[in-house]
Amino acid sequence: MKFFVDTAEIDAIKELHNLGMVDGVTTNPSLIAKSGRDILEVTREICDLVDGPVSAEVVALDADTMLAEGRKLAKIADNIAVKVPLTWAGLQTCKALSDEGTMVNVTLCFSANQALLAAKAGATFISPFIGRLDDINIDGLELIEDIRTIYDNYGFETQILAASIRSANHMSDCAKIGADVATAPPNVIKAMANHVLTDKGLAGFMADVEKAGIKIL
Ligand code: E4P
User: 2-190 falls under which CATH superfamily?
Assistant: First the structure.
């Protein structure tokens, strides 16, 4: 499973990228607003840093303006994936951009039907939002499973990009189901390293290091 990092914070991307943990980046208008940066400027900086797909989201609601925005975003770098919402206008924009050879990430997906439409419209990525479904007591992981089944049944090449990930467990759950990509905030990716038995085991080893005066350097 590929790891995308869900942030527009350059330092956080750099830290994970240096460890080989970043196969791509996703942003959205809320993450751009949180960074306090200009969307074009920060997106260009991220594209310079990361080789994999960098999702940058349109902000218009009608297809014509979305398409113009998408074309402008796509000019930033070859690894831009234009992010469009899963609305009818978004699907129209997805089809037009993917026909032009631009990668498209269709976002705000909350149903298998929506995912089926995105694949038909030529989406490179479909982004089902697990956490926001869980928030309203609908099983987000079940949606990933359903989309996996549908895409595999018909050989759709659209990649399932699990989004709105809130916990480290979501990451391994998505990998078990067969999501192609999971995008998570940096703190969730780092939390994947944590285990209480690792901490306990290390404390025991350190006590023995102290007791025996073990030194390597
Ligand atoms: C990424 O593409 C999504 O925009 C993001 O994962 C949404 O996450 P949230 O539901 O935690 O805002």
Answer: Aldolase class I (3.20.20.70)
